[in-house]
Amino acid sequence: MATYKMRFLLDDSYVKPGDQNPPILFYCGNEGDVWTFYNNSGFMTTNLSAALNGLVLFGEHRYYGKSLPFGDQSFSKDNVKYLTLDQTFMDYQILIRFIKASNPAYAKSPVFAFGGSYGGMLAAWFRMKFPHIIQGAHASSAPIMFFPGSVSPYAFNELVTR
C-alpha cells in the first residue's frame, strides 16, 4: 500500500489542560490550501472551539495545497485516478484515528465535521457514510443533491424570477 504526506492543522488553544475527550471539530478540507480555509473559518476555529473547549483539526484534501500524493506528477493521467471521494474519506478517517491514537485525552472524543460548499458536501457525506467516526456535521452552503439531471442549474434564477 502506497502512502503520501497529508498536511493537517491541529489547534488545541481552547482545550483545557486535563480535559478528557474534548470534542474534535474536524474541517473537511476542500479544493485549496488548508491555511486558506483555516484563516477564513473563525466561527469554527475561534467561536465554537472556545465555547466547547474543542480541539480544531483541519485536513488538507489530497491533490490540493501541499498534499500532493505524487509531487509534481500528481495530475498526470495515471495518477489523477486517486482523486476520488472514497480516497478522500479514507484519508480523513486515517487522520482522525491517528489524532485520537496519538493522545489518550482524545481517544474517545466525539468528532464533528465541518465544511462549506464542496467541503460542506464532504462533511455531510462523511457523516452519512461513517457515522461511527463522525457524530455530527455542519454543512454550510453545501449542494449535496446537486447533480446533473437532478436539479435545474437555473433553479435559483427561476425562483427569484417568479
Task: Characterise the protein shown here.
There is one protein chain. With 162 residues, this protein is an alpha/beta fold. The protein has one domain: Rossmann fold. Helices cover 33% and strands 15% of the residues. It contains five helices and five strands. It has helices at 34-39, 42-52, 85-102, 118-129, 155-161, and strands at 8-11, 24-28, 55-59, 111-116, 136-140. A five-stranded mixed β-sheet has the order 1-3-2-4-5, sandwiched between helices. The chain is globular, with a radius of gyration of 17 Å. The N and C termini lie far apart (54 Å).
Q: Could you list some keywords that capture this structure?
A:
5-stranded mixed β-sheet; about 160 residues; about 15% strand; 5 helices; alpha/beta; Rossmann fold
SS-derived structural category: alpha/beta
| Structural domain count | 1
Q: Please give the largest β-sheet.
A: 5 strands, mixed
Specify the CATH homologous superfamily. Answer: Alpha/Beta hydrolase fold, catalytic domain
Overall body shape: globular
What is the level 1 CATH name? Alpha Beta
Average pLDDT reading: 92
What would you say the CATH architecture is? 3-Layer(aba) Sandwich
